[in-house]
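The instructor's notes for this session suggest beginning with a concrete chain rather than abstract definitions. Hand out the sequence below and ask the class to guess, before any prediction is shown, which regions might be ordered.
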Amino acid sequence: MDSKASTMKSLRIILSSIACVVCFAGYSQDDPGAVKGMIDSKRFVFEAQSMTPMRGGMRTLTPGYALKVSPDTITCDLPYMGRAYQAPMGSSDGGMKFQGFKFDYTVKEKKKGWTVNINTKEVSGNPRIILTIFDNATARLTISSSTKESISYSGYVRR
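After discussion, reveal the predicted structure:
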């Protein structure tokens, strides 16, 4: 490899690293207290950046997929890949899409973050949501349901 090709490769690595830092810097919270405040108030949005189905590898997602939490409503609009045990009724979309008004919401503090458990009550399949949120606002979401295989998402939380 000549020196020009080596320099170009090094430059690509440096630019990729800078792009990653810039992307994630906008999502992180400098104050873990701000993240805890969102969790305690039940007012936050989980923005999914990738998904990992039970069967298959991780897939990067386009922006716009989210789980929105408010004190009286859970709104889920996430893509889904995996086995469905029951066909969705009245919908041609097979994603993880639902809205729930009756749910249990519990928070458990961990060493460097929190685990939020949300159990829906009136949504078909009774989706169970486990959201692990870290001090820097990055998060991992797992949804399990009686009608579909479990699936995980990685992303971040914001107000």
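Then share the key points. The first strand starts at residue 44 and ends at 53. The beta strands are 44-53, 59-60, 66-70, 73-78, 96-100, 103-110, 113-120, 128-134, 138-144, 151-158.
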